[in-house]
Design brief:
10 helices; EC 1.1.1.100; alpha/beta; SDR; 7-stranded parallel sheet; globular; NAD(P)-bd_dom_sf; SDR_fam
Length: 294
């Protein structure tokens, strides 16, 4: 239940002279690049202490270094979200960095490993479900002692979904199921931790955002699984041309804004939802799609 104390805090800082997230500590998974890195930068600009979590240590450190060089506050904690020990370490280091407190978790880490239903392998299936469902749950569970508190300070959890999770997508049965699943996790968090502790939990479902997951597969981006297998990322050029409508001269015809979103626009939506400006938005799935699927 929102307390009058919290409402007074919002009113007293209406102009947010120290930033929308001043005094808060945020974990952003998969923030070594793309949307996660932009969210880390925006959060830091708004006064948050940011924990940059990524499997690629060099990229994570570069993001943290850039934030610190710009006057913000960030640390990099490298590791694999499929490793239980890493999740425990991530929470521990975040709490130490935040002076014993964690205020925000953004479950953003993930990738696609596509295949049509009759050909998708158990490994493809299990890996994507583990990464997009089990890992976020384990991180939230590990961080529970820092969210189930009554200190009057805001607490927010954002689970990143996709239009694939809302509408399905050919070739993405694993990813679609996983991204649909996080909405249930979000609503459960809101119902369990909202009444007594005031925790807000929301899902943000992205449409076509310009990242390595929506770039041409021929660009060569890939992820290496823990056992050393390389997973190619992106959309085959021919399929991408059809999907984007370019072959008919109608680029992005299914998007009312007629363009994909940028990583900065996507990250700005995350910032908006965790900010005090959205203090009464809870348990929702917010589509950031440029109008796609309306």
């Amino acid at each position: 239940m929102a307390s009058s104390k919290r409402i007074d805090q919002i009113a007293a800082h209406l102009n947010f002279p120290k930033g929308l997230l001043a005094g808060q500590t945020a974990i952003i998974t998969g923030s070594g690049q793309g949307i996660g890195a932009e969210a880390a930068r925006l959060f830091a600009n708004e006064g948050a202490k940011v924990v940059v979590s990524d499997i690629d240590g060099k990229k994570a450190q570069a993001v943290a270094d850039n934030i610190n060089a710009s006057g913000g506050s960030a640390i990099a904690v490298q590791g694999d979200m499929l490793d239980d020990k890493y999740i425990d370490e991530l929470v521990k280091k975040a709490a130490e960095f935040g002076g014993g407190k964690i205020h925000i978790i953004v479950n953003n880490a993930g990738y696609t490993w596509d295949g049509v239903i009759h050909k998708i392998t158990d490994k493809q299936w299990d890996t994507i479900i583990a990464l997009h469902n089990t890992a976020p749950f384990k991180l939230v569970r590990a961080a529970a002692p820092y969210f189930r508190v009554t200190d009057g300070e805001p607490r927010n959890i954002i689970n990143i979904s996709s239009t694939s999770g809302l509408h399905g997508n050919a070739g993405q049965a694993n990813y679609s199921l996983a991204k649909a699943g996080v909405t249930g996790l979000t609503k459960t968090i809101a119902k369990e931790w909202g009444p007594k502790f005031g925790v807000r939990a929301n899902t943000i479902a992205f449409g076509h955002i310009m990242t390595r997951l929506t770039a041409a597969k021929e660009a060569g981006a890939f992820i290496t699984t823990p056992d050393g297998q390389k997973v190619a990322l992106g959309i085959p050029q021919a399929q991408k041309a059809v999907k984007d409508g370019k072959e008919k001269g109608e680029a992005f015809a299914d998007i009312p804004l007629r363009r994909p979103g940028t990583a900065t626009e996507a990250a700005s939506a995350v910032l908006g939802v965790v900010s005090p400006l959205f203090s009464y938005v809870n348990g929702q799935t917010i589509s950031v799609t440029g109008g796609r699927n309306i």
